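Before a computer can learn anything about folding, someone has to put a protein's shape into writing. The outcome of that step, for a single protein, is printed below:
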Amino acid sequence: MASINLFLDDVLRENKPVVIDLSQNEHVLEANERVNDSVQHAVPKQSATVASNVRELLECPVCLNAMYPPIHQCSNGHTLCSGCKPRVHNKCPTCRHELGNIRCLALEKVAASLDLPCKYQGFGCMGVYPYYSKLKHESQCSFRPYNCPYAGSECSVVGDIPSLVAHLKDDHKVDMHNGSTFNHRYVKSNPNEVENATWMLTVFSCYGQYFCLHFEAFQLGMAPVYIAFLRFMGDDTEAKNYSYSLEVGANRGKMVWQGVPRSIRDSHRKVRDTYDGLIIQRRMALFFSGGDRKELKLRVTGRIWKEHRNFVPMTCFLQ
């Protein structure tokens, strides 16, 4: 514990933030500062050692994540994060002593002196942030990876857009189309059968972007309904630059939906459960199917376009 306190004291004596970037240890010297070669080589090595020690000190021994206030410690000086304290039943996971309610204020102050690179540096984010601001930034970082938009399985794959497009094509065998217009038929022999699963996912490439068209049957209260909606493979700020329309029906009448595609940052379930798309009740779906109305045969057509003005979203009407 004495050695840890001495290390903390050394860091706290500095009145400037410690910037930790293990990938770059460049030091800019003042023009009038003269140092010999041995000192120049010692500084990066010392910086890397400090960086390694600080990262180790701020890592919770239970969840292995970075610790944020309140940081707890036992009487022997072992620390852990506030989220893990209830999980260990107030027993130190290192020495099994009672934890009590001791705060490690020195370590919290050390953390406040640090600047760290975003954890999505490998995805292109070059930002460096104060320790206590870093978590918030990472929750909103535009470089953070996307979840796979395929809703037919519990897919855990994450990545950037190009890698997800390849994943959808190769692993999920999703239909890929070029163009901003589409015409799809959805057929089901037993329309009374409603599963909470996606019937079809189709990916469209247009305007240099990718869009996902979902069509699904699900239960709305006690009534089975169908929903079609579009998601944008990118962030919400970019998604708002586009609009789309969906139509279902034929000469006997049709339903039309017009709206803004939701980003795949929003989960498939969130979009579906907010009814942000073309919703067709089973009675109307059977009417549009024609024939004896015992088989579902829906034709959904649509169009995607790029907006050059403010758009009034979400309109749905029956013609």
